[in-house]
Amino acid sequence: MNYRMSLYLLGQISITIACTLVIPLALSLGYQETGTPIWFSISIAILLSFGIPSVVKKPKDTNMKAKGGFITVAIAWIWLSAVTCLPFILSGVLPNFFDAFFEIVSGFTTTGATVLTNIEIVPKSLLFWRSFTNWLGGMGILVFLVAVMPKTDNSFVQVYKAEVPGMSFGKMVSKLRFTARILYAIYIFLTILLFIFLVSGGMPVFDSIIHTFSSAGTGGFSNKNLSIAAYNNIYFEIVITVFLLLFAMNFEVYFLVLIGHLGLAFKKEELRALFAIYFVSVISITASLFSHHIYPNFGETLRYSSFQVASLMSTTGFTTTDYTTWPLFTQLILLILMVIGGSSSSTAGGIKISRFITLAKTSIRDIRKTISPRTVKNVKYDGKIMTDDLTSSVTSFFVIYMAVFVISVALISATNTLSGGEGFLTYTSAVIACLSNTGPGLSLVGPAYNYSFFSGFSKIILSLNMLLGRLELYPILFLFYHKAWKRY
């Protein structure tokens, strides 16, 4: 591992995030909040005091291998979360470190799980920062660094690969920083467009900013205790539903549309699967709710089911109703949607639709091989033959993901007091919601509740789950692999 280059990159990202903290600092001054300007200043000072000495001299050896990139990204996310949660601690909003760390990790990983019991009394600057972390984490903290850097080298390629979700790494154009800039240009355009729609519909400007950032990053943080349900506005729900699906799409689709390859864009298997899963889920849940007479008419039933499906499928976690009161069949569908998540190279979490397509095709291939051993069958994705290494890596990812899930549930069950069916459903859905970066789960972590009752140890485990889910396992797991720390 190239320690000097890793330190240099950590210094750069520390300075970058210190600059973004100036925005909530300015808001706290503008709103004349007591104390919060000082708390943001402390975080900025810590980041700069580490960042500036680290970047004074660029290392001569800038080479970085994949394992170095993974570890650098993992440390960066943990370091930034630990420092930027200080305003919550020092302001007294979340005086417990475990709570504050959990809240900010939830923000950066776009999970949206919260330990706040009364969101509406929190100072506006802290609410802004909380949602802004959703936006920064949505596309990626280090991807943002790559986008703003004047030039990049091999080390940036490795951190980019470690942070961008998906089965395999790919660049839209030949130069990495141009790829990052294209991604952020599309991201910023959709963000501004959503903000305009919300403000035009009558949502207050500050509320629009909060919900725009949270929707774009598919994080789900709101400045309302009741989330989107607080507005009881069909227009807002339709607009947010549409944009959640847009942000859950693979951003490569937008690039193909921009360069005029519409046919190629719409032939993407993941795109077609995304909308197929959405419509099938909406139809299934609507039919179940309507047959159980949960809502007075079909229109209301469709309204609530379509929003909840888009929100949980995109792993955003906004809610307009308490879906834990729905029939078990509908809750099971929502739980499955959390696990599947959105598309690769999107801001959504979950295992990703592309991996499930690959798993399904690989399983069918293997069944056919069993029946006809001499038959040669290849797994194809978007018309291209997938290598055995790639299909094996997808299978390995799924196995490790399930192992992390089982271990996490066991650890949390051993350190909390709930028992029986309620405890099992709470702990299981909490781990799923954090690993998939969704936020709200079922039972006592449903949309009407929060994560404040968990022990400090459990909050650390769940925070690791969020990081594992957002960084797709390997960067965090590499921290515990001793050989990854060896020098080149």
Task: Give a verbal description of the structure.
- This protein has helices at 3-20, 22-30, 36-55, 66-84, 86-90, 97-108, 124-139, 141-148, 154-163, 176-200, 205-216, 234-247, 251-258, 262-266, 269-291, 298-313, 328-340, 353-371, 388-414, 420-435, 456-470, 474-478; strands at residues 380-381, 384-385.
- The chain is mostly helical and 488 residues long.
- It has a domain at 3-247.
- Strand 1 and strand 2 form a beta hairpin.
- Helix 2 runs antiparallel to helix 3 and helix 20 (420-435) packs across helix 21 (456-470).
- The protein starts with a helix and ends in a 10-residue tail after the last helix.
- The mean pLDDT is 91.
